[in-house]
Design brief:
164 residues; mainly alpha; Methane Monooxygenase Hydroxylase, Chain G, domain 1; elongated
Length: 164
């Protein structure tokens, strides 16, 4: 196995770890925005998250290509191959690669937890908004927001009918 392959894998893993660190920071910002119910900032955060997701797809594709090449060189099956196994098989001289992999694992787990927490906060916020609107006289449309033809049904509730 070439040193070049280990270096390329480490470069991709480092780039992914950097991306997930930026996603972590963005998710922390999103949490603040969700608590403040700032729709404008939430839209901006959502747009930035979409950009990071696109970047992540590119990095993931690059990592998969490097992993496939290294797996072939090491005579490992590509299907179901975990990075930890690949890093271990690359030998004791690649400690930096293993550290990079461990860092990636940690930051990905933090991102997963933040996403789960933010999903919960968003769900609570939506429930509170719906309850408030219901208290204001049933101004929420019941059931489907958009009809099968893609058009919105007439709003129910005096406030919504007046604004339509």
């Amino acid at each position: 196995m070439s040193e070049d392959g280990a270096g390329r894998l480490q470069t991709v893993i480092d780039a992914e770890a950097n991306l997930y660190a930026r996603m972590r920071d963005l998710l922390e910002e999103e949490r603040e925005v969700l608590f403040s119910l700032d729709a404008v900032r939430l839209e901006a955060v959502t747009r930035r998250k979409a950009e990071l997701i696109d970047e992540g797809r590119v990095l993931e594709s690059g990592r998969k290509a490097v992993v496939a090449q290294l797996a072939t060189e090491l005579a490992l099956p590509i299907e179901g191959l975990r990075l930890a196994v690949l890093c271990e098989r690359m030998g004791p001289g690649n400690e930096a690669l293993r550290r990079a992999h461990n860092q990636l694992v940690v930051v990905v787990s933090v991102v997963r937890e933040l996403m789960k927490a933010n999903r919960s906060i968003a769900g609570q916020s939506l429930s509170e908004v719906r309850s408030t609107l219901e208290i204001l006289g049933g101004v929420l449309p019941e059931g489907v927001v958009y009809g099968p033809d893609g058009h919105r049904p007439s709003p129910k509730g005096r406030v919504l009918r007046q604004s339509a």
